[in-house]
Amino acid sequence: MQADDLQRLLTLKMPYGKYKDRLIGDLPGHYLGWFAREGFPKGEIGRLLELMYEIDHNNLRDLLIPLRK
Description:
With 69 residues, the chain is mostly helical. The chain has one domain (5-67). Helices cover 43% and strands 0% of the residues.
């Protein structure tokens, strides 16, 4: 994890798929779980999806509340 990754979860939108244009930090857990089973994409999007999956899976979404504007 990089220093600004948590903030990126709340500013970067999903570029494709069923939840296109939704913030990565707002993606539903079942969608993140699908990526965990099928494989995360390469690059920054995949890294952030994997981080969001871990946050959701461990019930830590409240960590993002202070970062929301």
